[in-house]
Amino acid sequence: MGSKVESPVESPVEIRQWKLCSYSAQGLPTSDHLKIFKSYLMISDDIIPDHHVLVKVLKLSVDPYFRQTITGLQDGLYLPQVELNQVVKAFGVGRVVTSKDPGYRKGDIVVHPLLDVADYCVIPTNFLRRVDPMAGISLSDHLSALGLPGFTAWVGMEHIGNPKAGENVFISAAAGAVGMYAGQLAKLKGCRVVGSTGTDDKVKFLKEDLGFDDAFNYKKETDFDVALSKYFPNGIDIYFDNVGGRMLEAVLNHVNQHARIPLCGMISQYNQVWTDRGGVRNLLNAIGKEVRMEGFLVGSHRHRSQDFNAEMEGYIKQGKVKSKYQMYNGIESFLESLTSLFSSSNVGKVIIQVSNDEEP
Ligand code: NAP
Q1: CATH of the domain at 266
Q2: Same structural domain, 17 and 90
Q3: pTM of the entire predicted model
Q4: What is the pLDDT of residues 8-22, one digit of tens each?
């Protein structure tokens, strides 16, 4: 990034950047693995190459996939590993401070899938998208309903789940970023939707704020089979899987003929090496019930992003899809916000408010 100097001269700004210092194969990552570093940056046109902009980072999206990019393992993972001592990246919103691209001007608000987890960063302008902060969509929603979680929920539910009115839909991690949109999209298609989540408050949130037909706290259920019999007396037609493991196994005992299971994520297993993960013992049920289980990567559906944006923007503006954010303050909260994804402490989309300086 830019030309950094070791000590302040002629009004440089202090920047803080998170770097990966060592890999974390299992368990929660700690400050031994991810550390924040301070340096100074001269803000001037001279430090950026052509077709790049210098951006002040405003908000960053904190996403579970990141955990899988810092294991240092090559065990069939589909995500490339972050290099050691490199600044880590996240989907984010920033304000252009200075530009070497005629398409972008100082003050533009932009979204980029790989902003540095830092106060400022220099980025190439391909993959940059300008947003109009006055267009009725909050900057947080550009990271949430219109960002990675909303797009993931839409691809998984609409293109793989293919919901039909009256079908029974189950969503795990339902009060999280992807889950809350997946459930609302299924409701809009006329389905009966039930979610699982890890606290009673989130159960209430799903039923009272998001209009789920029912929800349960999986941490209070000692037997998932019993719980699913109770919440799905007519079986499950679509299971939107965010957690994998024991819940996926239990669902396979309750699927209807031709059920669909979009395999979105398996967060219950991200902190384990694969040999420690529990197996799904009843996969055989998928044959007898002719179940379609399909893993997907949202990045492979970029060609659908215009359709998605049009549909989701409409829902947001008509109040048909609601968002909830869990805000963390300051770039220093990155590690705390990342590890929080592996507890049940968050509701909705986890976002770091890096700077409040949002006015163009
Ligand atoms: P999120 O749901 O906002 O946050 C993660 C939630 O998972 C936590 O709040 C927690 O909620 C739950 N959780 C954590 N550890 C768990 C465990 N051991 N067992 C069961 N639940 C646990 O995260 P998100 O961004 O929406 O992501 C949801 C899933 O989608 C993740 O698996 C992620 O990897 C996946 N994803 C996939 C794609 C793709 O392209 N396929 C793209 C984006 C995200 P509760 O315990 O309270 O329910």
Answers
A1: 3.40.50.720
A2: yes
A3: 0.94
A4: 345 688 999 999 999
